[in-house]
Amino acid sequence: xxxxxxxxxxxxxxMASAQEISxxxxxxxxxxxxISSWETKQLLITNPEAYKYFKSAKNKEAWGGFLIASGIVLxxxxxxxxxxxxxxxxxxxxxxxAGCIVAxxxxxxxRTKKMQKALxxxxxEIKSTVGATGFDLNILANANGYGLQIRF
Length: 152
What we know:
The chain is α+β, with helices and mostly antiparallel strands. The protein contains five helices and five strands.
């Protein structure tokens, strides 16, 4: 009876963790509830190919955000300097800031496609491994430690 209970618990845990992830308006959802980006990363880390696309999308998002913020700071800072002093406006800072903002547009444009691709790869893997007969046992290692993954 004890073995049957343990086996049943493993089955429930495996089926509960093997749900598809969707993305709507830049937010991640699993079973209709919103999950954080960190939780999404922890789910995708089990699939190296999906994680590669996810990481690439997050890098694009970070660099694009940095360039936009830098551009706004440089442009607004130069505008304020021009308003409160007798210095000529615009100076080089305005042009560099505008250039940063323009450079951020193509960098951030491909992040949604990469994120969708990562989720598609992950969801396809979930469908193929969970729907198969038998089970799959994997040993995982991530930032949280080591563990076993059983898929039915």
